[in-house]
Write a structure and sequence with these properties.
It is a single chain. The chain is mostly helical. It folds into two domains: 129 residues, Farnesyl Diphosphate Synthase (Orthogonal Bundle); 194 residues, Farnesyl Diphosphate Synthase (Orthogonal Bundle), CATH 1.10.600. Helices cover 74% and strands 0% of the residues. The protein is built from 18 helices and no strands. α3 runs antiparallel to α4 and α4 packs antiparallel against α8. It starts with a helix and ends in a 5-residue tail after the last helix.
Length: 323
């Protein structure tokens, strides 16, 4: 199974954007994404306790630093659930690493550095446990799992494009916000699933300000207060998304493939946020946009994504809540 097949198995929506990136950027971002999915698999694995996760995440870092062989890790994952897309990635970790090492050295360095930092951040948060005291804790966690991804892809873009490289100092802070935007929406979208596996990525302060506990957040008897907490999360997501929009608009219009690689996930996130806003259903199920909406966003963005004026208008259009 090649890297593109693995990408499509693990994420149909992210693959739509990554596959629009030009040439080597598509290959590099695909490999980076799969390496991070390997880290996610170790972080989220429900069959392991926290100490085992931390040990394996640190082992994965040593493998990325070429201090250990990949077989040292894969030999410990023989009972992986083959129905889990991330487990399939883990089974092909050796081939993914070989593909990484076939890329230009500068590209390898960018990918390895940020994947290592992100994985170490995941290990730190697994050790810390599922208690986020305030918004600073939430931002710290989201930076490790997503903000660093924003840095990674932006550094790849800058390696590829002189125009982006010239504006790197301006764009990099926005890259962090782009990552936080996508991750905040991801937190909102997956509130119920995360709670069922023992994690709540909402700061305790958000709950205490409304006189709630994490458990009461999902109790229908406390729905009005819970929706106010949800409002606070959606407002936070909106702040990050506005910076993410600025990030995309800062990319050269003539780099249409690079822009589309960012526009697709941004617009999917904006629409998902609109669907989630003030929606009590997210306390029991995952918030999703329809396949028809995904298809329309891809079509519209491909036709008009070169225009910043259109991006502003489309952002506002997608950000209108249903009903």
């Amino acid at each position: 199974m090649n890297s593109r097949d693995l990408l499509r198995i693990t994420s149909r929506t992210f693959s739509l954007g990554i596959e629009r990136l030009p040439g080597i950027l598509c290959d590099a971002t695909t490999i980076a994404y799969l390496l991070l999915r390997m880290s996610d698999y170790l972080e989220d694995n429900e069959e392991m306790d926290a100490d085992e996760k931390v040990a394996l995440l640190n082992l994965w870092v040593d493998i990325l630093r070429e201090k250990e062989k990949i077989e040292t890790l894969t030999s410990q994952l023989t009972n992986a659930d083959i129905n889990n897309p991330d487990a399939i990635v883990a089974q092909h970790a050796k081939e993914i690493l070989l593909h990484l090492h076939s890329l230009p050295f500068a590209v390898q360095e960018i990918i390895s550095k940020q994947v290592i930092h992100s994985t170490l951040g995941m290990a730190r948060w697994v050790k810390h446990g599922p208690n986020l005291i305030d918004e600073n804790d939430l931002d710290d966690y989201m930076f490790e799992v997503a903000g660093r991804v924003g840095y990674l892809v932006t550094q790849l873009f800058a390696w590829y494009s002189f125009s982006i490289r010239r504006r790197l100092k301006e764009i990099m802070p926005l890259a962090r916000e782009f990552g936080l935007a996508l991750q905040t929406v991801n937190v909102i979208r997956g509130l119920r699933e995360d709670f069922d596996r023992g994690w709540v990525y909402i700061p305790q302060k958000y709950f205490s300000d409304m006189g709630l506990s994490a458990e009461q957040f999902f109790d229908p008897q406390h729905r009005d207060q819970a929706l106010k907490v949800l409002d606070r999360m959606t407002e936070k997501a909106e702040r990050h998304l506005k910076y993410a929009l600025t990030y995309v608009k800062a990319l050269p219009w003539w780099q249409h493939g690079i822009r589309l690689g960012c526009i697709f996930p941004l617009m999917f996130a904006i629409r998902t946020l609109a669907v989630s806003r003030n929606n009590a259903e997210i306390f029991s199920t995952e918030a999703k946009i329809t396949r028809a909406e995904v298809k329309q966003i891809v079509l519209d963005s491909t036709l008009w994504g070169w225009s910043n004026l259109w991006l502003d208008r489309y952002y506002k259009k997608l950000n209108v809540s249903s009903g």
